[in-house]
Amino acid sequence: MSASFPKPTEKPVNPCFSSGPCAKRPGWSLSALDASLTGRSHRAAPAKAKLQQVIDLHKSLLGIPADYHVGIVPASDTGAVEMAMWSLLGQRGVDLFAWEAFSSDWLKDATGQLKLSDVRSFEAPYGELPDLTQYDGARDAVFVWNGTTSGVCVPNADWIPADREGLTICDATSAVFAYDLPWEKLDVITWSWQKVLGSEAAHGMLVLSPRAVARLESYQPARPLPKVFRMTNKGKFSAGIFHAETINTPSMLAVADCLDALAWVESIGGLESTIARSQASLGAIADWVAASDWIGFLASAPETRSATSVCLKITDPWLLGQPDDARLAFVKEMLKPLDKEKAGYDLASYRTAPAGIRIWCGATVETSDVAALLPWLDWAYATAKAARQQTSA
User: Do β-strands 203-208 and 188-192 pair in parallel, antiparallel, or remain unpaired?
Assistant: First the structure.
């Protein structure tokens, strides 16, 4: 790339490309929210009806099976995953698949916090997937569907036996509304409102299959469970949690924002349209990468490239020959002008990932904004490289 790459003139209309909290839906404004229930108890009938509406819309828009239980839980996706792990694991052995930051956290929790005695770990470095076919259906499994910090996603669920005896616990926070998930292969599914919906953080969604409910009622872990993790009462499933009786107090303003996001999804054609929007943005980046001489996908296999958290690595041999800390410092310096120009915010890779770029392409992001961002990345890289070379000359 020429060091004199011209400075672009067109900017994204919305320069927000953070992977969480993510961009709001097109046309969003605070005035669009129904704030009439702020200050009301979440136990009051009107507030409870709104919470139930969030559950019902998720279930209908995503095609979640009728006999699956959908609930709103505290502490975002992380809280939902922890609830599932602490409440369900330990009855049988666990196969845990880790290939980026959050899946690695679940592995650490299983071994270091829950101290489970029978854990098989299958790990892979950033950019790759572990061998999912190693899963033993007689055991439980914990995995992410889409590695938010690596841009590597599970291509299918063919590796999960339909007649499995164990439970499959899937952290799907950056996949829900961007992929048509195979619900029948998943027993516990978690996500948050802040990802593909672009809604507010702090609230999580937890889905349980009938098999997961049966586990809750037949197995009681020896470990103590904090109140916010408990899904049974005297050995019986606390179904109220999955009928708008939240464990702790939710933000009714955040609920209003989530309903606004869900209404937008419905207005544009539902899940099929949200999937298409993410795929279109991924396609724009793929075309750009194919024509570039300095950038590539972190995901090593095309079929595992995420359509939401698109993670990229710098492939220019000039930078690859430098130490890790130098590459990280370079990327930070490279991205500063984009923030100053209001051309692209929050584009650095996750703090534990290889130095690079991460572009959120969930459904609330316009493909036209992604397309407008890419020349700015070319300009920023060429400019930063020229400055670094001049300094070291």
Answer: antiparallel
The pLDDT confidence band at residue 2, using thresholds 50, 70 and 90, is very low
* H or E element in which residue 224 lies: none
Q: What is the 3-state secondary structure (H, E, C) of 80-143?
A: HHHHHHHHHCCCCCEEEEECCHHHHHHHHHHHHHCCCCCEEEEECCCCCCCCHHHCCCCCEEEE
CATH fold of 30-266, please? Aspartate Aminotransferase; domain 2 (3.40.640)
CA dihedral 295→297→298→302, nearest 10 degrees, is -160
Give the β-pairing of 309-314 and 295-297: antiparallel
Tokens of 157: 């669920």
pLDDT tens digits, 229-270 = 999 999 999 999 999 999 999 999 999 999 999 999 999 999
Answer for the pair 101, 77: CB distance below 8 angstroms, yes or no.
Answer: no
Q: What is the pLDDT of residue 172?
A: 98
pLDDT at residue 157 greater than cutoff 50: yes
Q: 29-40 burial, b if ≥16 CB within 10 A, otherwise e?
A: eeeebeeebeee
Nearest to 216 by CA among 367, 82, 85: 85
Distance CA 110, CA 17 (A): 32
Q: Is residue 321 very low, low, confident or very high in pLDDT (cuts 50, 70, 90)?
A: confident
Contact 362, 308 (CB under 8 A): yes
Q: Where are the domains of the chain?
A: 30-266, 270-392
**CATH code of domain 270-392:** 3.90.1150.10
* Six-digit token string for 178: 């961007």
Q: What is the pLDDT of the chain when averaged over all its residues?
A: 97
Tell me the pLDDT band of 5, cut-offs 50, 70 and 90.
confident
Q: Is the pLDDT of residue 1 over 90?
A: no
